[in-house]
Write a structure and sequence with these properties.
Elements: H1 6-30, E1 37-43, H2 47-63, E2 66-72, H3 78-90, E3 96-99, H4 111-117, H5 129-136, H6 146-156, E4 166-170, H7 177-186, E5 190-194, H8 201-205, E6 210-213, E7 231-234, E8 238-241, E9 249-252, H9 257-260, E10 266-267, H10 274-298, H11 318-324, H12 330-336, E11 344-346, E12 352-354, H13 357-361, E13 369-375, H14 385-399, E14 404-408, H15 413-417, E15 425-426, E16 429-432, H16 434-438, H17 444-468, H18 471-478, E17 481-482, E18 485-486, H19 490-498, H20 511-518, E19 522-527, E20 531-533, E21 543-545, E22 556-558, E23 560-562, H21 567-574, H22 578-586, E24 589-593, E25 598-600, H23 607-614, E26 621-625, E27 630-633, H24 648-658, E28 663-671, H25 672-687, E29 693-698, H26 700-706, H27 720-723, H28 727-745, E30 751-756, H29 763-775, E31 780-784, H30 786-789, H31 795-805, H32 821-833, E32 837-840, H33 842-853, E33 860-861, E34 884-893, E35 898-903, E36 922-923, E37 930-931
Parallel strand pairs: 1-2, 1-3, 4-5, 4-6, 6-7, 7-10, 13-28, 13-29, 14-27, 14-28, 20-23, 29-30, 30-31, 32-34, 33-35
Antiparallel strand pairs: 8-9, 11-12, 12-26, 15-16, 16-26, 17-18, 19-24, 21-22, 24-25, 26-27, 34-35, 36-37
C-alpha cells in the first residue's frame, strides 16, 4: 500500500495503530494486568497545545495505552517541574514521558534542561540529548524523535527506496531538520542540508528525489522548486489570513501544496500529513518503551556483572578480605536485578531499603526455588552456616549464571561485642560491607527497640495513672474535650467494639461502661512485656523499676531482654504485608489483668504509634556478597527464643525478583531441630510458600565433639583431636548428622549435606562424613571449600541444590494446628529431638488450660530450647534417644502467632564474658576504618 493523499495517509496510520493495538493485547495476555502508560506533562494551557494533546490522548485510547494528562500551573518553577519529572522517571508504572512544548510558564524555564531531565529510557519524544546523540551516530537503540521518525515512515510507505537517493532537507532545527537528515543518511541517502543562509536554494531543491521541508515559512517552496516525481514531506504549519474562515485564518505548510501536487509523486498535506504520523510514532515509541521494560523484568537471567575475587592462601582475616573487595554501587546492583529507582532508598552507596511496592508490581510473577540453610547441632565455634549460605549463592549467581538471592537475618550487636562475632559469613564468602552488616545497618533493630520500649513505658504509665486516679477523671483524661468536641480515636473505638459497647459518643456511655472502657486493671505481677536493648547486659536480667519518689511507691520487678528477642521482631519477621503486621502488633498479649484475662497492645491504644516507629523497618535492606550477588537482610529473631528466621517479606521479594528459574536461599538459626523445624512449621505455614530443598551444614570438628571430644571455647587453642585425623572419634559423632538428615526428610524435602571444609580436615575424615550422609538419607552430600575459595569452592554444592530443586516437592508440616498444645509439643520432642516422653510442671499444666480457654491452642509451637544439644541439657552431645524433655514454663506470643514452651533455663539476655571482643575493637581516627572487627 502506498499513499497519494490524506485518506491514504490515514489508512497507513490505521494500519500502524492496528499493529500497535495487537502488540499491547499480546503484552496483556502474557503479563495479566500490564498496560503501557504514557505521561503527557503540560505547563499552562495554550489552546494549540491542547489540540495536540487531545489528538495524543485519543490515539492512546484507541491503541490501549493508558495516557495521563498531567496539567501543571503556569506559575510552576523550574525546580518544581524537575521534581515532577523525577517522580515520573522513577515510577515503574510509567513507560513513556513527553513534555508538551512550548512551555506556557510565567517563570523562566530552560526547555532544553527539561527535555534532558526526562529519562532516556522513557523519552518517547526522542528529545533527550542522549537519544539525539545515538541517532547522530547511527545507533537506533534509543528513541527516535517522533516527527523525524514520522517523515521517514511516510517516505518508506510511498514504496520508493531511500537508498542511493538524493535527499534535501530544508531546516536544521534540533527538533526536525537535523535528526531527519541523520536518519536519511543512515538509510543510505545522499543528504544535503539547507537553511536560511543557503544560496541558490531553489536550484538545490530541484536535485532532490526526496525533499523534506521544515523551515517555518508559509508556502516558501514553490512547485517550480521541485524535481518531477520527487517525494515531498512538508513539516511546516503556519497560519495565514483567510477571510473565508470563521477564525479569519487558515493553516498552510512550508510548501505550496496546490503547486507541488502537480509536480511531485507524493506530497504531504497540511493540516494532516506529518502531524498525525508524528502522533502514531509517539504511540509506537510508547509501546516500544513498555516492551523494553517488560523484556527487562521478564528476561530469565539477570544482566548481573559479578565481582572477581583475588583469593590468597591461606586466607587473611575476614575484615581484611572484606576490605580488599570494592563493592558495586548498590544502585547498579538494584538495576541489574530488576528494581526501579522508586523502589530503592539508598543508605550511602552500598546498602539500600527496598520498597514493599515491588510485591504489588510483581504480583503475577512466578517465584524462584526456595532453599533453607540450617545446620547440625552447633558447637560454640559455629559451623559456618552463614558462610555456606553466602558461598552457595555466590556459586549459583557468579559462577553458574543463575538468578540467586541470599536472604539473611540482621545480626544483633550483642554477639558482635561479645564472643560469637559477626554473622556476615566468613573468608571469601561474606556480605559486604561487613562492618555495616554487623553494626547498625539501616537501624531496624533500633526501631524495634524504640517500639518495644515505648510500649513498656506506656504500659507502666497506664498502670500508674489507673492506680492514682478515680474513675471519672481517668475517663475524662482518656477522652478529653478538644475545642468543644469530645470523641473517641479510631483505636479507642476498636477497644469499645471488643468490649461489646456499640456507642461512639463519649458522652453516651453509662458510668459502668466508662469504667469498663477506662480501666485495663493490669496486674503488675503478671506483666509479660519487658524492655529491650541490643547489647549483652547481664545486670539487666532482673531489675526493679519505679523507685523514684514521683512513682509513689509503685515499684515492680521486671527485666530487660536483648532486642532481637522482642516479640515485635518476630512479628516483623512473620508478617505477610503491612496490614498483617499491624494486626499482629495489635494482638500482642502484654499482660494479664486482675481477673487473669489477656491485655493486648491495642487495648493500650499503641498500635498506630508502633507502626509509625517501625515504618522504615518494614522494608528489607539490599546488600551484596563479595562476588557482587544480591543479599536481602531483614529482621533478626533468635532461634532458641523465637523462630530464628529472616522475614517472610524479604523472602517473597527475593523470590519475585529471582523469577521462576531463580533461587532464593535463606537461613534458619542453629540446627534442624530448632531453626529448620520452626522455618517449616511456623514461617512456611505463615507465608504459604513451599520450600524445595534443605541444606544442612556440618563440620568434621563439630561431629568429633558430638562423638565425645573435649569442649571447645572461642579464643582458646583447639585440642589435638580437632587438628589431627581421628576417624574413631568422628564415627561416634556421625549419629548427630544422621538425626538432622532424618529431621529434614520428615518434611518431605530433599536434604543436601554441605560438609564445610576446615584446614585441618583430612580427606579420609571428609569422605567418611560424605559417605555416611549418603547412606543415611541425604539426597546429596558434598565437600565445600567456599571459605577459602568463595563461590568457586561451592560449585558442587550449587549443582546438588539445583538438582534437588528440580525434584517435585512433597513438602508437609510436622503437625496440624488442630492438634492440642501437648500433642504438638510431643510431636516435636519425639520426632525432632528423639525424646521418649515429655514432662510438665503443675504450673505449666495450669497455664496450658488458660491458653486453651483463650483460644490459643490452635497456634503453632515455638520451642525455646538450648541450641547446643538435641536434648534440653546443653552438655549432652550426639543423638540420644528416649530421654525425658521437661517443660518448665509456657507463654503465648499471640502477635507472632505461636505458643512458646520453655525447655530448661533459657535466658533472653546474654551476658558478656571475661574477655569480650570489646578489647579488640577500635576506630582508626586517621582513616575512619574500624579495627579489630573479626
Amino acid at each position: 500500500m502506498t499513499w497519494k493523499n490524506q485518506e491514504d495517509i490515514d489508512a497507513e496510520i490505521i494500519s500502524i495503530e492496528n499493529d500497535l493495538r495487537q502488540q499491547v493485547a499480546v503484552m496483556g495476555q502474557q503479563h495479566p494486568g500490564f498496560q503501557p502508560k504514557l505521561a503527557i506533562v503540560q505547563v499552562g494551557g495554550r489552546e494549540d497545545s491542547n489540540v495536540y494533546i487531545r489528538a495524543k490522548l485519543k490515539a492512546a485510547e484507541n491503541i490501549g495505552i493508558a495516557a495521563e494528562h498531567i496539567k501543571l500551573p503556569r506559575e510552576i518553577s523550574q525546580a518544581e517541574l524537575l521534581t515532577k519529572l523525577t517522580a515520573l522517571n522513577d515510577s515503574p508504572l510509567v513507560h513513556g514521558i513527553i513534555v508538551q512544548m512550548p512551555l506556557d510558564s510565567v517563570e523562566k524555564i530552560d526547555s532544553h534542561l527539561i527535555t534532558d531531565a526526562v529519562s532516556s529510557q522513557k523519552d518517547v519524544d526522542g528529545l533527550n540529548t542522549e537519544n539525539e546523540g545515538r541517532v547522530a551516530l547511527g545507533d537506533m537503540s534509543g528513541f527516535v524523535s517522533c516527527t523525524p521518525a514520522g517523515c521517514i515512515e511516510l517516505i518508506k510507505r510511498t514504496g520508493i527506496s531511500i537508498e542511493g537517493k538524493q535527499a534535501v532537507v530544508i531546516g536544521r532545527s534540533r527538533i526536525v531538520g537535523t535528526p531527519v537528515a541523520e536518519l536519511l543518511k543512515w538509510e543510505n541517502a545522499t543528504v544535503t542540508v539547507c537553511h536560511s543562509k543557503t544560496k541558490n536554494l531553489s536550484e538545490i531543491t530541484k536535485t532532490a528525489d526526496i525533499l523534506v521541508v521544515a523551515i517555518g515559512k508559509a508556502e516558501m517552496v514553490r512547485g517550480s522548486w521541485i524535481k518531477p516525481g520527487a517525494v515531498v514531506i512538508d513539516c511546516g504549519i503556519n497560519p495565514i489570513p483567510d477571510t473565508s474562515k470563521p477564525s479569519g485564518r487558515r493553516l498552510v505548510g512550508d510548501v505550496a501544496y496546490s503547486e507541488a501536487v502537480q509536480v511531485a509523486s507524493h506530497v504531504t498535506p497540511v493540516p494532516g500529513g506529518v502531524g498525525p504520523m508524528t502522533v502514531a510514532m509517539l504511540m509506537k515509541n510508547t509501546v516500544l518503551a513498555a516492551s523494553r521494560q517488560l523484556q527487562r523484568i521478564s528476561t530469565p537471567v539477570w544482566p548481573l556483572q559479578p565481582l572477581r575475587l583475588s583469593t590468597v592462601s591461606p586466607p587473611p582475616s575476614d575484615i581484611v578480605i572484606a576490605r580488599s573487595q570494592k563493592p558495586k554501587y548498590i544502585s547498579k546492583l538494584a538495576e541489574e536485578i530488576g528494581l526501579f529507582p522508586s523502589e530503592v532508598s539508598q543508605y550511602g552507596n552500598t546498602k539500600a531499603k527496598i520498597s514493599l511496592s515491588v510485591l504489588d508490581r510483581l504480583r503475577d510473577q512466578r517465584g524462584g526455588k526456595y532453599i533453607v540453610v540450617a545446620g547440625i547441632t552447633p558447637t560454640p565455634l559455629g559451623e559456618g552456616k552463614s558462610t555456606t549460605l553466602i558461598g552457595l549463592v555466590q556459586a549459583l549467581g557468579a559462577h553458574r549464571g543463575r538468578n540467586a538471592f541470599a536472604v539473611m537475618r540482621q545480626p544483633s550487636q550483642g554477639p558482635t561485642f561479645g564472643v560469637k562475632g559477626g554473622a556476615a559469613g566468613g573468608g571469601y564468602s561474606q556480605v559486604i560491607p561487613m562492618e555495616d552488616f554487623n553494626l547498625h545497618l539501616t537501624g531496624d533493630i533500633h526501631a524495634v527497640s524504640a517500639a518495644n520500649n515505648l510500649l513498656a513505658a506506656h504500659m507502666d504509665a497506664r498502670i500508674f495513672h489507673e492506680l492514682t486516679q478515680k474513675d471519672g477523671p481517668l475517663y475524662d483524661r482518656l477522652v478529653p474535650e478538644i475545642k468543644g468536641v469530645r470523641k473517641f480515636s479510631p483505636i479507642q473505638l476498636r477497644r469499645l467494639k471488643r468490649l461489646g459497647i456499640e456507642k461512639t459518643d463519649p458522652n453516651a456511655l453509662t458510668p459502668e461502661e466508662r469504667v469498663k472502657f477506662a480501666r485495663l486493671n493490669i496486674d503488675p505481677k503478671k506483666v509479660m512485656w519487658n524492655r529491650v536493648v541490643d547489647l549483652n547486659d547481664r545486670y539487666l536480667r532482673k531489675i526493679t523499676i519505679g523507685q523514684s519518689p514521683t512513682e509513689k511507691g509503685f515499684t515492680r520487678e521486671t527485666s530487660f531482654d536483648i532486642a532481637v528477642a522482642s516479640e515485635i521482631m518476630a512479628v516483623l519477621a512473620l508478617g505477610k504485608d503491612v496490614n498483617d503486621i499491624k494486626e499482629r502488633l495489635a494482638n500482642m498479649v502484654v499482660a494479664l489483668d486482675t481477673n487473669g484475662k489477656p491485655v493486648i497492645a491495642d487495648d493500650l491504644g499503641i498500635t498506630g504509634a508502633l507502626m509509625v516507629l517501625l515504618k522504615d523497618a518494614f522494608e528489607p535492606t539490599l546488600m551484596q556478597t563479595l562476588e557482587g550477588t544480591p543479599v536481602l537482610v531483614h529482621t533478626g529473631p533468635f532461634a532458641n527464643i523465637a523462630h530464628g528466621c529472616s522475614s517472610i517479606l524479604a523472602d517473597k521479594i527475593a523470590m519475585k525478583l529471582a523469577r521462576e528459574n531463580g533461587y532464593v536461599a535463606t537461613e534458619a538459626g542453629f540446627g534442624s531441630d530448632i531453626g529448620m523445624e520452626k522455618f517449616f512449621d511456623i514461617k512456611c505455614r505463615s507465608s504459604g510458600d513451599t520450600p524445595h530443598c534443605a541444606v544442612i551444614v556440618s563440620t568434621v570438628r563439630a561431629l568429633k565433639m558430638h562423638g565425645g571430644g573435649p569442649t571447645v571455647s572461642p579464643g582458646q587453642p583447639l585440642h589435638s583431636v580437632y587438628v589431627q585425623e581421628n576417624l574413631e572419634l568422628l564415627s561416634k559423632g556421625l549419629c548427630n548428622l544422621g538425626k538432622h538428615i532424618s529431621n529434614g526428610n520428615k518434611f518431605g524435602v530433599p536434604v543436601v549435606i554441605a560438609v564445610n571444609k576446615h584446614g585441618n580436615d583430612t580427606e579420609a575424615e571428609l569422605n567418611m562424613v560424605r559417605e555416611y550422609a549418603l547412606k543415611n538419607g541425604a539426597f546429596r552430600a558434598v565437600i565445600c571449600d567456599h571459605w577459602a575459595k568463595g563461590g568457586a569452592g561451592a560449585l558442587e554444592l550449587a549443582d546438588a541444590v539445583v538438582e534437588a530443586c528440580d525434584r517435585p516437592s512433597n513438602f508437609q508440616y510436622l503437625y496440624p494446628l488442630e492438634m492440642t498444645i501437648q500433642d504438638k509439643i510431643k510431636k516435636i520432642a519425639v520426632e525432632m529431638y528423639g525424646a521418649g516422653t515429655v514432662e510438665y510442671t503443675d504450673v505449666v499444666l495450669e497455664k496450658i488450660k488458660v491458653l486453651n480457654d483463650r483460644g490459643y491452642d490452635k497456634l503453632a509451637i515455638c520451642m525455646a530450647k538450648t541450641s547446643n544439644s538435641l536434648t534440653g541439657d546443653p552438655s549432652i552431645k550426639g543423638a540420644p534417644t528416649g530421654f525425658t524433655l521437661r517443660i518448665n514454663d509456657i507463654f503465648v506470643s499471640a502477635g507472632a502467632g505461636f505458643v512458646v514452651p520453655m525447655v530448661g533455663e533459657i535466658s533472653k539476655m546474654p551476658g558478656l564474658p571475661t574477655r569480650p571482643s570489646i578489647y579488640d575493637i577500635d576506630l582508626n581516627t586517621e582513616t575512619g576504618e574500624i579495627d579489630g572487627l573479626f
